[in-house]
Design goal:
11 strands, nine-stranded antiparallel beta sheet, alpha+beta, signal, disordered C terminus, two-stranded antiparallel ribbon, Protein Transport Mog1p, Chain A, Dihydroxy-acid dehydratase, globular, about 30% helix
Amino acid sequence: MARTFVTRAAAIGAVLMALGGCLAVPQDGSGEADLFGVISTVSRPVGEPLPQAPIAGGDILVRGPEGYCVEGRSLRNRADGGFALLASCFVMSGGKDGSPVAPVVMTVSASEIDPASGVPDPRQLAGAFAPARVLAATRVKGVSVVHLATGGEKAVPRADPRHWRGAMELNGHLVLLALYSPAGSQAAERGGSALLVELAQTLRAARPRPAPDPEARVPAPAKRDAVLGGLLQ
């Protein structure tokens, strides 16, 4: 179980590192991609900001908390899962849309849920990232939330090593969440938990509802005739 989540975590980290190139982020003097340089200034707008976007073949609609949009180039929509990165709408639009918000990067990764394993509880989720030191592990509003002391800077250059991870079930999929923020920011401390849980709640509120069964709307003949008879009396 832990090995599965380590693999998924590594995959998320690999995608984020790759984004350093595909998002055309600015480079510092050492040539290192500076993702937080993008999300902290309107002078370097990046990919198209989308208010929402589907993943998992449309089973999940990714939408962020108010002020955060999906970075269009990051979007990966597959029948069995997908990935999306979210950041400030205001920054990504060059100041044209939204209002300034905390300069964080959030990710949503979905895969088909394993009925035998289900969703990891906080302890299991924390164990998946061993040997990283765990600052907190709890369950909030149905979301397993873990605060890790290390690793954030490896996923996103210039991020605080402290970052947040989450896990939840949504429309039959395992959804992994992550939140990275600049070094020393409030979100790297306790403030990130509330924002990660808000992301989870927004995803739940946006989830597509299954289409109603058309057969369920057609009354059985006997019941239908009784209803019609009552109307004619």
